[in-house]
Structures are given as structure tokens and as C-alpha cells.
Amino acid sequence: PVLNRLDHLVETRNLTQLVTVVYGVLDPPAGDGSRRFTFSNAGHLAPLLRAPDGSVEQLAGGDSVLIGAPIDVEHQQVEQILAPGSTLVLFTDGLIEVPGQPLEEKLDQLTATLRQHDPDAGLDAMCEEVLAGTATQTLRDDVALLAIRIADNRRSLPGPSRAPEADSREMA
């Protein structure tokens, strides 16, 4: 896996920086529209998955020590099948880390925000709702948020209600 190579690079270059990272690969859609997400997690907060029914869970597995830790370990990969209509949310700890507040409490707040989000409002609205929770905080760390919605082709998308006209020209 990529994290094993990264860990080896840090070790051979004598870099002393400890780094947390989630590395993942999202496969193309399967016949049913689901997608496989294969990932490794080196000391980072686990991604969250909002299912189409609105439930939210932290993705488990693939956990290992930070990159650059003086421990020889194999970084394992795990697979998670993402159903059509689900949303994968990756974020840095700066999003939920607030001095004097338990990290678990802020993670619960983030989970509640994701659970209450109306998926028809779109990903931009969801990200704005999540980031609005940081508006009154003094941020001490970087904040990154990535949300990926797995297309649900069974739902009709907004747009023209008539079928596109066929092009009758022949291609040479």
C-alpha cells in the first residue's frame, strides 16, 4: 500500500516529522451504482459515512500508527462499499479540535450536523453547514473538508423534462 511506501520514504530520508494521513481510492461505479472505497488510516481521524437513510458512522479499520513513528508496522487497507446516495466525508482535526472541549464532543456535533442535513440541498450546502459550526471558534490548526456524494442514478436529477433530440447525422 501507498502508506507503507510513504513510511519507508520518511524513514530512509531521516525525516523526523510525524504525519497523520488517510489515503483512499474510490473505484468506478459497480453495476448497482455502489462504489468501493479502499483506504488506510495512519493516525488520522476516521472518515465519516452518511448513508442514504441519514445515519452517520465513522469508518472503521485500516488504522495504524502515524507516518514517521519509530515503529516498524504494515499499514493495512480496508474496503468499504458506498451505496448510491451516500456521502463520504473526510476532514482534518482542525475542523473539530477546540481547546478545552473534548474531541469526542465536537465529533458528535459534526455527526449530528451531517445526520440532519437535507441531501437535496447539495454538497455545497452541507459543507457550509459544517463550516458554520467553526465560525465562533478560534482555529489553531488547518481546516480541510472533503465531501463526496455517490451518485444515485435511480433518483431523477433536476433538468429538462423532455428527452434530448436525437442527432440524425451519420458519423464518418
- How many helical elements? 3
Largest sheet features: 4 strands, mixed
Rg:
20 Å
The helix-and-strand class reads alpha+beta
Question: How much of the sequence is in beta strands?
Answer: 15-25%
**Which regions are unreliable across 5 or more consecutive residues at pLDDT < 50?**
156-172
End-to-end C-alpha gap: 46 Å
**Shape, principal axes of CA atoms:** flat
Order of helices and strands: HEEEEEEEHHE
Helix content: 10-25%
Mean pLDDT: 84
Strands, total number: 8
Write a structural description.
It is a single chain. The protein has 172 residues and is α+β, with helices and mostly antiparallel strands. The protein is 20% helix and 22% strand. It has three helices and eight strands, in the order αβββββββααβ. Strands 1, 2, 5 and 6 form a four-stranded mixed beta sheet that branches. It has a four-stranded antiparallel beta sheet with strand order 4-3-7-8, with helices on one face. A hairpin with a 5-residue loop joins strand 3 and strand 4 (56-58). The chain is flat, with a radius of gyration of 20 Å. The chain starts with a helix and ends in a 23-residue tail after the last strand. Mean pLDDT is 84; it is low at 156-172.
Key phrases:
single chain; 172 residues; alpha+beta; four-stranded mixed β-sheet; four-stranded antiparallel β-sheet; 8 strands; 22% strand; disordered C terminus
In short:
The protein is α+β, with helices and mostly antiparallel strands and 172 residues long. The protein has helices spanning 2-12, 103-116, 123-132; strands spanning 21-26, 35-42, 48-50, 56-58, 63-64, 78-82, 87-91, 145-149. The chain contains three helices and eight strands.
